[in-house]
Design goal:
single chain; alpha+beta; 3-stranded antiparallel beta sheet; two-stranded antiparallel sheet; 5 helices; 13% strand
Length: 142
C-alpha cells in the first residue's frame, strides 16, 4: 500500500480521513482493517506487477506485492504451432499465409537477419529454390 495521503474515500467504509491508496491505484483504504476486509475481493483485480519509471533507467516492471517463487506472471498463446515430425515447410507456410494480416506482420517482425541467411544446407533440406519467397525464408528462420 502506498503512503500518499488523499482526499478520496475508503473503498470499504466510505470515510475520507487518512485514506491511503493501494499500490495499483484502483482502491483506497482508511485502515489496515478495511484493507484486510476487502483483500479477498480486490486481490483478483490487483495486478502482480506494474510498469513504473525507474530513476535513470527508463521504465521497469515492479512487483506490487510478494510473489511466491514459481508463480507465472505472464502467459501467452503461441502464434504458430508446428509438429516437427509431420511438418512440410511449404504446407505450414501456406497455413501461415491464411492467418490474419496483422498477426502475420507481427510474427515476421521477429525476424533478425543477422547471421540467419538461408544457407545451401537449409535449401536442400527444405527443397527450396534460390528465388523462393522471402517471407517463407523468414517464417522458417524465426
Amino acid at each position: 500500500m502506498s503512503y500518499s495521503m488523499s482526499l478520496i474515500s475508503c473503498t470499504v467504509c466510505g470515510t475520507c480521513c487518512h485514506v491511503r491508496q493501494c499500490t495499483c491505484g484502483q482502491v483506497s483504504y482508511c485502515s489496515k482493517i478495511c484493507q484486510l476486509q476487502d483483500w479477498r475481493s480486490h486481490k483478483q483485480d490487483c495486478p502482480l506487477v506494474m510498469v513504473r519509471d525507474m530513476e535513470s533507467k527508463g521504465k521497469g516492471l515492479v512487483a506490487t506485492r510478494r510473489i511466491p517463487a514459481g508463480t507465472a506472471i505472464f502467459t501467452e498463446d503461441p502464434l504458430v504451432v508446428v509438429k516437427k515430425e509431420t511438418m512440410l515447410p511449404k504446407d505450414e507456410f501456406k497455413k501461415f499465409q491464411k492467418m490474419n494480416k496483422k498477426l502475420r506482420e507481427d510474427f515476421l517482425s521477429l525476424f533478425d537477419p543477422v547471421g540467419l541467411e538461408l544457407n545451401k544446407e537449409w535449401r536442400i533440406e527444405w527443397n527450396l529454390s534460390e528465388t523462393e519467397e522471402p517471407d517463407l525464408v523468414k517464417f522458417w528462420r524465426i
